[in-house]
Here is the input.
Amino acid sequence: MNFITYGGLPNAKISIEKKAEKDGVLFFDVNMILEEEAVPQQFTVCWNFPIIDTLSTWSPTIKAWRYLAPHWKAQRTTSRTASWMPIHCHFSRDGRNRQTVAVADAKTPISLLSGANDNTAELYCAIEFFTNPVAPLKEYHTTIRIDLRHIPYEQAIRDVTKWWETDCGYTPAFVPEYAKYPMNSTWYSYHRDLVEDDLLRECELSKPLGMETILIDDGWQRGEGHHMVGDWMVNADKFPDFKNFVDKVHEIGMKVMVWFSVPFLGKWSALEEGRENPVYTRFKDMVLNGGTDGFGDTFHFDPRYKEVRDYLVDIYVSRVKEWGIDGLKLDFIDWFNLTDISLKPDDRRDIKSLEEAIDALMLAVHDALIKVKPDILIEFRETYVGPCIRQYGNMLRVIDCPNDALINRGDTINLRLISGDTAIHSDMLMWNVNEPVENAAMQITNCIFSVPQISMRIQSLPEDHKKMLGFYLDFWRKNRDILAYGDIFAKNPEFGYSMAYAVKDKEAVFALYADTAVDIMDMKTAKIINSTRLDALIVENAQGRDFEVVNCMGEVLETGKIENNVVKINVPLSGIIFIK
Here is the structure.
């Protein structure tokens, strides 16, 4: 590799040194040394890679169009403590790794770029360091990992995840069993219009369908709107006795999670119009912004102050103890950003770096919560995913994409590929109740390799939709070891994944989204979901095996024995072929 570096402070000494080479994986140390402590300026490390059998670029931040892109409009992945991770994987037309680039440092603001150089037919690759302001420092060191092995791209990505976990010190949080069971979430189904008795009825209906937890999203708290948050007290008009509500849900047999927006601090009190929020009064000179973030009079806590971190930790711990809840959804942590007022020095801060402060806050929250409840559920959602976030939480959820099966498919598979054993959850599933039931089922089939979160009012579902939901959640639970714990493979990422499958102990679940043929290889059992809009699939290498076809409600349509090595089997939209 011929690296070129440019940028940085005039007195910065920047070097790239080869550290090791292990079976086709190269490691390079990046070193920056300043003459005296200072705020570093952005610098770039770049190199060229020949575009030979290199079709596309994979990164969880690159969505539907995974083209190479020209170098002057390169594909870009940004990474920092509270957002994403530094990785690009370039792969061939048959889905094999050509070059996978990753950086050991997942905290510092970094961007990875890659694009085709139209002069040389080479891939211009670059890593930009310190893309956002950071605290003053004198030295900086990290490692670039470049994997050139001709292996399946999925394996190259998984190996980066293992490297972050083992060699880079990002040890993932413990994942309780209940993190990998279907849930009922209230956001799309209720938004802020929460009614206690209605929610209890929803729990009574959700539990038999296979949902084990209810997530009470935004709207439970006193003061609706981000401009009145910060004290996190229950809205007594909706929940006169929240602990009693939680106890009733527990009696039904479900767990309870509660939503909190971590950074937000509202200026106004929820108790008296025009009165300042006492929490704002206390912390208004320990914030990151001036309340101009689009949410009106909403500010963001500055976690560089120990007093701020202690307050937030105490809020979450006290609420878990007081209410007996089983988990927290901790939202919006990617909104911690430095602005003009927070760039000024303040001797009261015990941590200079915002990235280090976010890390310290979230590690403190995690450690304090597991002391209270070792199996507590902690959810984060995109964009706050990655090796840092996996230390703090055991559930990662797809970004809000209501009724959008394609985003849910792509992002759940992306997160499964890069997130190891952390529980990956779909965005909350919703659909129009007037949809044909087969279409409604596609919301589930497109995120079948993640833990389904349902956000439909069960009481209002048509009977066929309710039957479909019960069948698919039962199918998911029966195949949970494969779907949630198995190795996942996904074909044609450049097309948004035409087919994906998960395998464990030679048992597999396949989901076809565009491909119409599936080779079951040497699997002991195979379940094949038709999400292609076609009414038949081609199955290979299943000769002599018994099969059964069911529709999206689990009704048996056909049984028999497969007579040929290649066979066409009729199966309706959202139906499943079972092969034994």
Observations:
- The longest helix spans residues 354-372.
- The mean pLDDT is 95.
- The two ends are 50 Å apart (CA to CA).
- Residues 158 and 418 are 6 Å apart (CA to CA).
